[in-house]
Description:
binds iron/sulfur cluster; two-stranded antiparallel sheet; 41% helix; alpha/beta; single chain; globular; five-stranded parallel sheet; Rossmann fold
Amino acid sequence: MTYLSKKDFSQLCLGSSGEGGISQIYIPEIVRTLEEAAMGCPPVIWLQGASCGGCSISLLDNVHPKLRNALIKIKSLAFLQQPVANKNDFVEKVLTIARDYKGQFYLIIEGAIPTGADGLYCIVGEDADGRPISLLNLVKKLSASAKAVLALGTCAAFGGVPAIEPNPTGCQGVSKVLAGQTVINIPGCPPHSDWVIGTLVHVLRYGIPDLDGDLRPTLFYEGLDQGEEPLGYLTESLKKTSFS
Ligand code: SF4
């Protein structure tokens, strides 16, 4: 079995960002890291907010089949896909994970967070008294005890399409909502699957990677100007489009 040191892994990622693919010889090692995560702790909570679902779908569609299987095998992965019928069960489950694994679990957020009307545009469940629980409140609550927060895709990182003016739901990127907390941005619409897996493996095995001024892992985004993102021109062009 190939063993990947942090230095080897960084080199691999720098190559991958320029050439577009994780070498096949490293797949077993990366699968092993994901399977280790799958066997026990730490749990991963994955929430979808104002999202088209493309980030997770493209990840599962594009990633190497062995990596996809390892990803799906993360037993402690709690995944909220919108819309979902039994939201209350889900909210209870993730709050229990946050309580039981305080400071140990990872929170992945896909999509922007509606902050308008105190978050009421995105309700994820109800409390015991029947009062709505918003995604905004859930994210704030969970992030306070998460080991790391990952914002997956341009919508989660910077607001993306849902935050385009006039932005009636007040959508914002995760780092803006969680100002002052460490958030790892993995922008792209959707982000390259290697960059998602690479960041996840880095966080699970080596901890939080070096981040640039936009909170993006330099392993993958070095060389892109600050604020620049893959397909950023699309967001810019949409901003200039009138939908009225
Ligand atoms: S970043 Fe793109 S693919 Fe991901 S949720 Fe937003 S619009 Fe969809």
